[in-house]
User: What shape does this take?
Amino acid sequence: MPLDLEKVGVKTALRSFLGSNDLDTNTLAEFYQDLSRNSEEIRYSPGQHLFREGDLNEYIYIPVSGAIMLERSTSSGSRQVFAFLLTGNILGVSDQLIYNFSAKALNDSNVIKISQKLMKNIFERYPAIAKRYQQITSHILSMILDQLFIMGQRTAHQRLAHLLLDMQNRLGHGTNKFHLPMSRQDIADYLGMSLETTSRGFSQLKKLDLINIENNYQITIVERVKLTDYANR
Amino acid sequence: MPLDLEKVGVKTALRSFLGSNDLDTNTLAEFYQDLSRNSEEIRYSPGQHLFREGDLNEYIYIPVSGAIMLERSTSSGSRQVFAFLLTGNILGVSDQLIYNFSAKALNDSNVIKISQKLMKNIFERYPAIAKRYQQITSHILSMILDQLFIMGQRTAHQRLAHLLLDMQNRLGHGTNKFHLPMSRQDIADYLGMSLETTSRGFSQLKKLDLINIENNYQITIVERVKLTDYANR
DNA sequence: CGAGCCCTTGATGCATTTCAACGAATGTGG
DNA sequence: CCACATTCGTTGAAATGCATCAAGGGCTCG
Assistant: This one.
């Protein structure tokens, strides 16, 4: 379906993408017009791929609702999950001819899909947006560095604590409760550990009264400070 | 010292930075002029910092010779090494106000130092170079993803095998021999393992006749195909 | 030659994986 | 609505990989 700028989610996602700075209202309005005419919003079901590793890099995507997982698999069957993307994040920020990872919807998700061609065109006409895009790229870079840092850290349970803190930030909306969009296996492949270790990690953190597990996916951070401490010990 | 464009290493490094494409000779010549007037080549001794985590992000750096290590340390004393940079690589490609890692020379290194201000200026005047810069950023992003992928690999020895293959590509100059610029401890912190495990990994790979160790730093890849197989098993 | 540094190797204990069984939640067809 | 299958998560026990502790070897440089 064509992009409907009046939908609350779409606006939120785009605002989060563009950031709160610099862009004057005229530029913004024109840009929105461009988008609504030339790009669309697409709905994906759980498990459906936005694209696969090896596909031509022709679009960028901005999730409006739901959650997207970036992953790469080996011939030998193992898998690395690179990131979980939520509302207002962006994927496909790359000049590479071909995607070198796959993107898959974790649950029912709405996603804005913009062609790279349109994007290049927009960059030429709105330097402010091109600049913002560069900022985003460098922010992503710094996020991945953080992730790499965490991967090198001591214990599996600490890495899990990091993930939960991150998820609270991104999903908690100011509260200490959130709903995990991914499975234990997804978390395991994200943090480089086995499914069972992930599960034991949850149990351990619950036993220490740092978190509470309402059901498999509904998590509460009970002791944020202590959990942070646990993660960075 | 001011940048001497006639020096072979400098040319090589800049060419590798700029890539082999697109830029017409006029643009190139002007750009080189700009650089030689406004930037400099600096020599660093082993262990010396180019910058530290938290320093203002005011320069980008391009190694001409030697090797630079990017690292971040925790308060609790552990360390993550993010990358080893060699001739023609680039560091400081980020819009972040402050570096979020340190850069340290591993051995005697010459480095071209360019102010971010000059760089921005150059981008405005030479769009082709701005575009190239964006390509580089996205290439770096994809390198870090590869690194993240490797960190998720099963065993420590496999990760080491990956590193050695990477080093052969970058240092071997077409041969199967190369000189490692970093210590066992550096490798350990890069791959998220202990120094001892790294050492045992070397011994193991040698025992399997996949590599040969002339001395601690002089390595030969004996069986590239088998080593690749070992790394991805 | 000896000091210092880095690397290697061995022994031990702990963290994590693997294998296996079970439990909870969800969906399906009779 | 209830058996039943299926999927996903938890937990236990055994095996393995890795970190840690500790000792010793080799190289370099004064």
Remarks:
- The mean pLDDT of chain B is 90.
